[in-house]
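Changelog-adjacent note: as of this version, every example in the card shows the full chain rather than a window. The one below runs 371 residues end to end.
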Amino acid sequence: HFDSCLGCLACVTTCPSGVQYDKLISATRHQVERNQPRTLPEQIIRSLIFNLFPYPGRLRPLLTPLYFYQKLGLQKLVRATGLLKQVFPRLAAMDSILPSITLDAFRDKLPEVIPAQGKKRYRVGMIIGCVQRLFFSPVNAATVRVLTANGCEVVIPKTQGCCAALPEHQGQTKQAKIMARQMIDSFEGTGVEAVIINAAGCGHTLKEYGHILKDDPEYREKAQKFADTVKDVQEFLSEVGLTVKLSPLKDEPLTMVYQDACHLLHGQKISVQPRQLLRQIPGVQLREPLDAALCCGSAGVYNMLQPEVADELGQQKVENLLNTGAELIASANPGCSLQIKKHLQLRGKETTLMHPMELLDYSIRGVKLES
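Full-length structure tokens:
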């Protein structure tokens, strides 16, 4: 069944004839959703995902009960009994990747316009995401600091919503188009030279807006123009260059392994740039994992919908990363980070995992990592 396809896009990279499998996969997903009947449990879990995750306003009220669910030890109790996995395995899969809820998740503290430090080089827009906004807000804050430190004025329209990655990857045609139009409208008239994103899966979808809205006469040209301005933050910084001095993250050399997110490596052909940026941090020694192009099993919401296969991939990915002996894992996608953290915890490993922007931010500010 087509649901078993990860959508990792490795086939796009591998195909010697240059077949655009990403376009074929997308078209097939939408056909499946239109024509394939689903069981009631499948309908429930998919409805929960599509009506919750792309809407931070709906997800935010759940943060308080989730916060106490973790802090009061209920999550540990639920996991220890294994009852949820027996009754509703896909809900258990969602719980297994639930990140630690912090107080940062309860507030949006980034202003709409953040001035550049020193001479302004660029005016850029920034997309803060859905899951990224709530569960990885320190990554967004770090991204803003890195951009402003390197001469960028950052614009964050408050009207922006979901980038449409989740519904697009799962064949939700109408929802994806509505969200793409809203995103385009939110940046209209802002005068930004580039639209920056720090999450791999979101970036790939944003760059596909021209394809997603190709049949929309009103938005077709606007969508392609918008897509042409989208840059992954690592791609952008690699192009324009860093202008600030970087400091070591530790007093001794720091061994690090960069985890290639599929939607960066295969979807956007971005692999060299993150490594170039990380190597500019004094003392960083990058190590390469075996099968770097292997998917970690997150694949958007695949690890919630197909948890068994996702777990096999997650175990293999984490084993490959740990075998490098690196002290730290750099991951540029929230889904990958959640999946990798899950399988590190299952192995009893406390290896530090951070977004490359957090590492650059620390280096710029002279913050040292804890040993």
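Structural remarks: The beta strands are 113-114, 122-126, 152-155, 194-197, 230-232, 254-259, 284-287, 328-331, 352-354.
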